[in-house]
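To illustrate this point, what follows is a protein record of this kind.

___
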Amino acid sequence: MTRAILLLATFTVACGPSQEELDHANGRIAELEGELEAARAQNAELTERLQAVEAHNGELAQRLRALGQEVEGLEGERSSLRSNLEETQRALDELRERERQAQARLATFRNLIERFRSMIESGRLRVRIVRNRMVVELPEGILFDSGRADLKEAGEATLTEVAQVLREIDDRQFQIAGHTDNVPIRSRRFRSNWELSAQRAVNVARWLIEQGVPANRISAAGYADTQPVASNDTPEGRAQNRRIEIVLVPNLDELPDLSSLANES
């Protein structure tokens, strides 16, 4: 029995690992377990960092999209501002051109008033601004006898002086307008004040043309008593209403541009 136990012990020692080998194996296991634990910790850290990077990337992507939208908005705003600037510049250019034209008209009007000054001071005519148009007004008494349309000698002399001034105005149309008071006229030659005022305007126009004012710049119209400048209730008022007006007609480029209204009709 003792011999059998001894043989078993000898066999066990001969066939099994030694204690040193067991210790070495256990140490290696512990070492591997430690490495595994470190790897797990490192993996957890890397996973956390990856999640943070992904979150940051998502934030950056949102910011980039927002930035892109802002850039698109800024481009649209810049385009709108450029368009507004161009429109403002055009409006400014138009205003400057209108100012230039207004200054030119003002210079013409001042020159006319100065040229007519002696006739104004002598009472043979007066100059008025009516609806932004310059009007040279001559009273009936200077030009015609009552109820007649033939020019008097004094009227011809006055119109000759007027023609000398009008001839020097370039690119300007003149309308000769005849006006009467409201006292009806009935004669063999004139059925009403319409015929009288129109014939007086025509005779003045003819005289101006004979004095060298181009015919293509002259027109004539009769207004009878439809445009009084004073009351017809007094002799003084009626005398003011009996008159000839020489109207400086605005040029086409002085009138507002109405072409846009064509699309509204």
Notes: The longest strand covers residues 133-139.
